[in-house]
Write a structure and sequence with these properties.
This is Probable electron transfer flavoprotein subunit alpha. The protein has 332 residues and is an alpha/beta fold. Helix content is 29%, strand content 24%.
Length: 332
Amino acid sequence: MFGLSRTAGLSQRMAFARLSSTLAFVETTGSKITPSSLSALTAAQELGKPITTLLVGPHAAEAAKEVSKVASVDKILVSPSEKYDHYLPEQVSPLVASLLKDSDYTNFVVAASTVGKNFLPRVGAILDLQPISDIIKVVSPDTFVRPTYAGNAILTVKSKDSQVLFSVRSSAFAPVELKDARDVPVEEVPYVEAGNSAEFVSEELVKSERPDLGSAKIVVAGGRGLKNKEEFDRLITPLAEKLNAAIGASRAAVDAGFCDNSLQVGQTGKVVAPDLYIAVGISGAIQHLAGMKDAKTIVAINKDEEAPIFSVADVGIVGDVFEIVPELTAKI
């Protein structure tokens, strides 16, 4: 009968811990790290393993200087091909899969953003691994906590895969701190042929001087109770301007054409956790609550006192939004 002594077994586990590491995908806007990726790096830190980051696109080399300000990052990979410029999942997935295959990376971390949600399942399919989505807590390198049923139940999930792929709900983790730039090793990774014809054609971006919805400290959101686009703009925009707040909306308001779908908050939209969330004319379907109930203070204004939104509100105002909101705006 053969076996390892306790001392030998401990040495082997320590050696494995040194060899194992985490690969974290970092999204950027130009050369700046997105807030959601800063939160994902916090989750990566909690794994307690050396961290290698991956940046792609023509701004990757410049953005690497920003990543070097994260004290926990040990190495930076950059793949500067123009084909990665818009994070097409058909292009990014083969690159990530090639880096993970037969590597020492035991964990792959990405923000649960539109980009991350697009390519993470594809990477899992290529490598035959089961990703864990939208985690809100790291228990250990293979065990995580995540919400399900629109946030009405919380699961603790343990992966049996040799490499654990997971996405991070940014509202659950504080952004990692950026310090002084350091001399971190940077390695260029060549473009990996995707084997498909997917290519970027065009985009239409909604430009605004107001704070970004995903990272704003204050959000003013409107729902179907505002009746039409004209009333939505008349009530929500002035209040948001007074508070220097981002504008959000329920899915019902977006589907009715009150505002652009980039402003949707909820299970199928953006998940936000601002200091203050003001819900105007929003009934509070569970899909919407899943996207905003982690806000520190929630104010709900609705004429229906039985509306579900009041179950999560810290301050509830029952009344006509067409009277209350203009008065509130005037008094601020």
